[in-house]
Specification:
Largest sheet: none
CATH topology: MetI-like fold
Distance between the termini: 8 Å
Radius of gyration: 24 Å
CATH superfamily: MetI-like
Number of strands: 0
Number of helices: 13
Number of domains: 1
Order of helices and strands: HHHHHHHHHHHHH
């Protein structure tokens, strides 16, 4: 197990280096001058030049890239031009918001996706199966921002059950957190729940056709025990693969949802940074987000090794 974890961590380092390089290149390809955006359109050329010099933007790209990697090795991701605080501090202040919202959406995704997929597989070719798959297709087809707008109109504007936006911390007021996080979590979860439901159904159908399932039923074991202990346990590995992808999509999809619902998470922070050409914030924020997604993939690999000894043996 330790060898697998060390191997995955070492393999993550080149990924982070490549992502940091791509981010650096893309940032400098964005049209516009951040010095002008910071100084304002009425600034004099001397003021713009001073800002460029202070930010190091007057240096060659290779020198800027060298400084970026040198600071990165010391854990310094720069200072946000928009917020005036270190990138790491600004990101870590908003990370709990995004993680709490993603966790809420993940619970909804697992609950809706697993239950509907298992029930559809057990009731194959019945109206229950068809209804579940139709709902799953609808969920996959509706974009999160469009679903969010519909929920704002119905539940916030017309019915006034929930607030239109904003955020209340879970530690501050749990009921307020539920009120402000429910619509964003549903907007994130519905699409992914449909995907999980279809994968769960197909995986369960394949497992239920195996000989050991027929043998377990022939021995007189209750259907509930056969499904939960034998079928679902053996279908977990491909399902965990999808869950790992879903977690990554939840975190990356928070950019749109947090902006739509005015939630002060990493997604909204990166959106504001891009719009204001806050180079250090975009570079550092994307790198931290990538590290988080890589950590999710490593956790999925660890779950593989725990569930399937063959993965543990091959990794060693």
């Amino acid at each position: 197990m330790g060898a697998i974890l060390v191997h995955r961590l070492l393999g993550a380092l080149p990924i982070l280096l490549i992502v940091s390089l791509i981010t650096f290149a893309m940032i400098h390809l964005i049209p516009g001058d951040p010095a002008i955006a910071i100084a304002g359109m009425s600034a004099t050329p001397e003021q713009v030049a001073n800002i460029r010099r202070d930010l190091g933007l007057d240096q060659p790209l290779l020198s800027q890239l060298w400084d970026w990697y040198a600071n990165l090795l010391h854990g310094n991701l720069g200072r946000s031009l928009l917020l005036g605080q270190p990138v790491v501090q600004a990101t870590m202040q908003r990370l709990p918001v995004t993680l709490a919202l993603s966790a809420y959406a993940l619970v909804l995704t697992l609950f809706l996706g697993l239950i509907s997929g298992i029930v559809a597989a057990l009731r194959q070719n019945t109206w229950i199966d068809q209804a579940a798959m139709v709902l799953a297709m609808i969920g996959i087809s509706v974009p999160s921002f469009y679903l969010g707008l519909l929920m704002i109109i119905v539940f916030a504007v017309d019915l006034r059950w929930l607030p239109t936006g904003g955020y209340v911390a879970l530690t501050q007021d749990p009921f307020g957190w539920l009120a402000t996080s429910t619509m964003p979590a549903i907007a994130l979860a519905l699409l992914l729940a449909g995907l999980l439901a279809r994968i769960t159904r197909s995986t369960m159908l394949e497992v239920l056709r195996q000989d050991y399932i027929r043998t377990a039923r022939a021995k007189g074991l209750p259907d509930r025990l056969v499904v939960m202990k034998h079928a679902l346990a053996n279908a977990l590995i491909p399902i965990i693969t999808v869950v790992g992808i879903i977690v990554s999509l939840l975190i990356s999809g928070s950019v749109v949802v947090e902006t739509l619902f005015s939630i002060p998470g990493i997604g909204q922070l990166l959106t504001q940074a891009v719009l204001n050409r806050d180079y250090p914030m975009v570079q550092g924020g994307l790198l931290i987000t990538t590290a988080l997604l890589v950590g999710v993939n490593i956790l999925v690999d660890v779950c593989y090794a725990l569930l399937d000894p063959r993965v543990r043996y091959d990794g060693a």
